Amino acid sequence: MAQTFISMRNLKFMLYEMFDVESLTTYPYFADHSREVFDMVLDTGMRMGKDILFPVFAEMDKQQPEFTGTTVKVHPVVETVMKACGEGGWIGAHAPYEFGGQQIPMSVMTAFRGIFSAANYSACVYPFLTTGAAHLVMSFGSQELIDAYVPKMFAGQWQGTMALTEPQAGSSLTDVSTTAFPADDGYYTLKGQKIFISCAEYDSIENVVNLMIARIEGAPQGIRGISLFVVPNKRLNEEGELVSNDVSCSGIYHKLGYRGAPITQLSLGENDDCRGWLVGEPHKGIRYMFQMMNEARIDVGMGAAAIASAAYYAALEYTRERPQGRKITSKDPAEPQIPIIEHADVKRMLLFQRAIVEGAFSLIFQCSKYTDLITVLEEGEEKEKYELLLEILTPIAKTYPSEMGILSCSQGLQCLGGYGYCDEFPLEQYYRDVRIHPIHEGTTGIQGMDLLGRKMVMKDGKALFLYLAEVEKTIAGAKSIDELAPYAEKLQESLESLKEVAQGLTELALKGEIEIFLADATLFLEFFGIIAIAWQWLLQALTAHEALAGASEGAEADFYRGKLHTFRYFFEYELPKIQGLAVRLKNSGDGLTVSMRPEYFSE
Amino acid sequence: MAQTFISMRNLKFMLYEMFDVESLTTYPYFADHSREVFDMVLDTGMRMGKDILFPVFAEMDKQQPEFTGTTVKVHPVVETVMKACGEGGWIGAHAPYEFGGQQIPMSVMTAFRGIFSAANYSACVYPFLTTGAAHLVMSFGSQELIDAYVPKMFAGQWQGTMALTEPQAGSSLTDVSTTAFPADDGYYTLKGQKIFISCAEYDSIENVVNLMIARIEGAPQGIRGISLFVVPNKRLNEEGELVSNDVSCSGIYHKLGYRGAPITQLSLGENDDCRGWLVGEPHKGIRYMFQMMNEARIDVGMGAAAIASAAYYAALEYTRERPQGRKITSKDPAEPQIPIIEHADVKRMLLFQRAIVEGAFSLIFQCSKYTDLITVLEEGEEKEKYELLLEILTPIAKTYPSEMGILSCSQGLQCLGGYGYCDEFPLEQYYRDVRIHPIHEGTTGIQGMDLLGRKMVMKDGKALFLYLAEVEKTIAGAKSIDELAPYAEKLQESLESLKEVAQGLTELALKGEIEIFLADATLFLEFFGIIAIAWQWLLQALTAHEALAGASEGAEADFYRGKLHTFRYFFEYELPKIQGLAVRLKNSGDGLTVSMRPEYFSE
User: Fold this and answer.
1) Would you say residue B29 lies in a domain?
2) Which of A260, A384, B297, B441 is deepest in the core (most CB within 10 A)?
3) Of B114, B155, B105, B150, which Cα lies nearest the Cα of B132?
4) Contacts of A65 (CB under 8 A, 6+ apart)
5) Looking at the complex, does the CB of residue B347 fall below 8 Å from at least one CB of chain A?
6) A549 and A421 share a domain?
């Protein structure tokens, strides 16, 4: 089995060479840190990934979680992972000191999570779901709630979850019906059902803390009547002992992939004794949840990119070792066979994967850098700029890696031919695992509507204008370098196409044709996404071009040359895909899907 | 679970309305048949599909074949399927009367196989692999071989296989090393290893007949030294009893999907007692095998399209029944939720699937019609025309359904959201099953080289010219109809683009830049494929447009309107994808993948 699942060299290229994460240490908030600290974080992540997570990657898939009737038996490594992450301080590493965190920049922790996700996606969700849930409590909960839950969660003793979905309310959170009845002592009594909740019950953890949305009895209908609660599986009684909180797991789903993490069904209050504690104010649950969801969406993007990374390195190793066929120019059967990496079509498949993986990583680190800058900047124009850039790029950072990650893993599988289809090699598992990402944390369709229906139009299009300005800055930089100028030109043309398409769609919206305006939102997301990744590849090329000038021959020079070659691949093979999308998007006004009547889908 | 896996209405639309298969009965070869006979074939296929195959679709996946150490335990339905297909005459139905067949047209049997494949792909390969293997014996074997094997195979008593691949020889058949040593009595003694052989050993069959390629001792190196043999797992001894032929199964693979059919490893001649009988002349094995392989390739296309069909109907049923969300124009949470089929993005996903499935079916039936015409026509220009059209379209008919079938099943899965990822619904299995098709019977990369490197240039491009003429005929017909004329125009433009791209690539070949010429062959295949399917959609639209004029309201009119809407979808959403591909293909001369050096793929 391949030993590389993610490239440390590439992570450092992005963190230090592209995004200069070291410069964050000039802000007081990060002043305690240094490049050495960041390296230590990365090295520890890689060591844990190699020693703990990666060795059980296939085993966790084969020994799926088992529902015992009351709890879920998970792989023993889960206990090890939660303990190691808790003891090492990795669950709360990004959090402020005051909450017990270490104020490690998001950029660095994103790399850390990327390493974990590439090593074993199922195993990594346990600690990082806990991070997200704790973050919600920290951000909006009372001091009492924070004190009661956050330290246990950061220590890896208690698992955190996000409990949103119900049988009748998946994409439509408006329809959440779990009800919270006000009770004495500041708590609420909950009753309802939740489904598809990751890691909400398992045997090797002391307690689970569900960050759950529900409707306070009598609350307004719809999204404005949803509140956020902490609903632990066990609560402390007056003696300080953990006792049942009437949250029962009624089953788990058997999934295509991502099998190491149980996805549970929960029943709340079967015995009318399920208590929840309100987080923040009533009826603001969706707003709170969305803060976590935006982070979670970028995390999903990282998960997908990381799985695609692991698939890419597994495919790469195979193609270097597998002899098959000969050069087209020398078909002499007496010659020995050559490694398949020497065939142009195999190189094309590898370039495709690398272009997706490193393009996606780059956009994700771009978003993390914005997050870090938002953390350290005072309120003001600059901070707002990064907030808006993050808003508009979040649906892309979630969706591009998720959708393209599927194709990337599929190409990885293809590199192995028949062996790719067999479980002796990990590709078939990556292909299954990665398929979750366009579904969870908001499907691709939801992301498309978020981008086109909200982010493009928010503040009169300010996010879009800021984004265009950022890309144009990169273009201007590249135009001054002969080797990159033609690509800068292509990106410029793509931006013009983006503006034209956006203009046409906006006119539909202004005419009040809202359904038609949004009908091709998913295509618009794809279109926008390809251009965003092209921008990131041009940024990478700028960095690599400069570095190559100073690099001698050898591995370093090969790395930069590989970067530049993959960059050209993206512009030659991937960026042109926007042309077909633009043709359609300029014609969206025909409302073709809107006018398709359900009865026309007769047999 | 959905009850529809393929649409009989659509099959009849294609067979009778589009391709007028009934007209074949005017040829003496098919004169015994009639529309009633064809309908009976289809109805029987559908009944067997619904009663025997479909009910065990999920079960065969979960109860995978098990290797016992000597044989493979398969699902009990396999015995039923082989018996029913043998007794019903379905294994040999297409074969000439003289071999015990029924001379049913390929077009009709392709529909029959499509029904089986959609009902349960794993189960259908047992009988239809047998058909293909028997066809090889019939076509090239001696009368003795035919008498000894074909009747048993047609009766479903003996399983047929194609045994090509070896550990060191997958895509590169040149490197086959299994050796055949001439012995007495006209047989050869075989020694070697085969891998990835479908259905070559299982418990519920009396015997397996492997059509195997091997190298006669002392044969020339390479492809010109490969011969074809019949190598049964058991042979008849002098007493007429079946005894071991020293073919032993050494294991099976555990696969991502398509799990109901075992893929075996075979050892030949471990005890120096494995006998094979030469089929046809020595050293012509690859030529013989390719006849079967071309048929098998179209079958693979049908398998992929059929799986995508079943996935589409499962998704369709779900989207009709699942309430979620409200119209964008009425977000009132007091309103009841609507079935998700009413959301534009869901309709887009369904249209995508239908466009792929019915576009692929159409091309496959086009190929089958050519096959039937080749069967009945005398040698001459017309026959050669259909042979060449079949040659050039075979890589497309294999690859377009296989590659797009993956995306189609993936969109089907996406329609179900989280449920699509769970095994309570069949989508996740379709997504796994369909992934085999770009791999077996020649990978997509191999198909691309076949199209660009062989089919485009054969007979000075005659196949291409004949193809262009066929498409132009369709365009001319559509131009005279106001509603279709704009689409005919778009297809015309696509053909111009195809000619331009082909011209540019040919110039690379003429310059002797063979590696660069073929480097983007896979993209060329994709490009050509989209245009071929657009052609088929225009043909469908012509038929539907005419029929709609005569159809009253109701289900029939809805069917034709659905066809026309899906046709427009293809032209608006799918056909524009050629633009990005054309951009790249016109720039193939840069040799981007060829110049990527393996060492640049450093970590």
Assistant:
1) no
2) A260
3) B150
4) A72, A73, A74, A75, A202, A252, A259, A260, A261, A262
5) yes
6) no
| Segment A82-114, tens digit of pLDDT | 999 999 999 999 999 999 999 999 999 999 999
Same domain, A66 and A211: yes
If we measure between CA atoms, which residue out of A453, A561, A538, A549 comes closest to residue A489?
Answer: A538
Candidates B438, B448, B594; CA nearest to B521 is B448
Is pTM beyond 0.95? Reply is: yes
Separation CA B123–CA B129 (nearest Å):
11
One domain for residues A109 and A200: yes
Give chain B positions within 8 Å (CB) of A572: 584, 587, 590, 592
- Locus of tokens 């949305």: A213
Domain containing residue A406: CATH number: 1.20.140.10
Residue type, B366: Q
A257 and A296 part of one domain: no
The residue type of B195 is: I
**Length of chain B counted residue by residue:** 603
**A335 and B CB contact within 8 Å:** no
* The pair of three-digit structure tokens given for residue B504, joined into one six-digit string: 């540019």
C-alpha distance from residue A437 to each of A291, A296, A306 (Å) = 19, 11, 11
* Strands B247-252 and B207-216, sheet pairing: unpaired
Sign of the dihedral defined by the CA atoms of residues B470, B472, B473, B477, in that order = positive
Q: Answer whether B35 touches A (CB < 8 Å).
A: no
C-alpha span between A10 and B333 (Å, rounded): 48
> Which of A418, A441, A464 is the endpoint of a domain?
A441
Which of B295, B428, B441, B526 is labelled catalytic?
B441
Taking CB atoms and an 8 Å cutoff, what residues of chain B touch A439?
Answer: 414, 417-418, 420-421
3-state secondary structure of B242: strand
Taking CB atoms and an 8 Å cutoff, what residues of chain B touch A320? 598
What's the rounded Cα separation, in Å, for the pair A358 and A404? 12
Is A171's CB within 8 Å of B572's CB? Answer: no
Question: Which of B325, B523, B598 minimises the CB distance to A172?
Answer: B325
- Same domain assignment for residues A510 and A550: yes
Rounded to an integer, what distance in angstroms lies between the CA atom of residue A466 and that of residue A501? 17
Is residue A482 a part of any domain in this protein? yes
**Residue B515 class from Cβ within 10 Å (0-12 exposed, 13-18 middle, 19+ buried)?**
middle
3-state secondary structure of B459: helix
Asked whether residue A331 carries a pLDDT value surpassing 80, the answer given is no
**pLDDT value at residue B345:** 98
Q: Judge if A150 and A44 occupy the same domain.
A: yes
CATH number of the domain to which A28 belongs: 2.40.110.20
Q: Distance of CA A320 to CAs A324, A347, A423, B440, Å?
A: 11, 11, 20, 22
**Type of residue at B206:** E
As a residue count, chain A comes to: 603
Instruction: List the catalytic residue out of A441, A500, A515, A603.
Output: A441
To which residue do tokens 């009367």 refer? B97
| Structural domain contains residue B335 | no
Q: List residues bridging with B160 in a β-sheet.
A: B209
Residue A405 falls inside a structural domain: yes
Interface check A222 vs B, CB under 8 A: yes
A348 touches chain B (CB under 8 A): yes
**Count: domains in chain B:** 1
How many angstroms separate the CA of residue A563 from the nearest CA in chain B? 8
CA separation, residue A596 to residues A446, A585, B344 (Å): 20, 17, 8
Give every residue of chain B whose pLDDT is below 70, as ranges. 1-2
d(CA A225, CA A215): 6
pLDDT attached to residue B184: 80
Residue A101's domain comprises: 8-283
Q: A552 and A537, same structural domain?
A: yes
pLDDT at A234 over 80: yes
Task: Give the CA dihedral A457, A463, A467, A468, nearest 10 degrees.
Answer: 50
Whether residue A79 lies in the annotated active site:
no
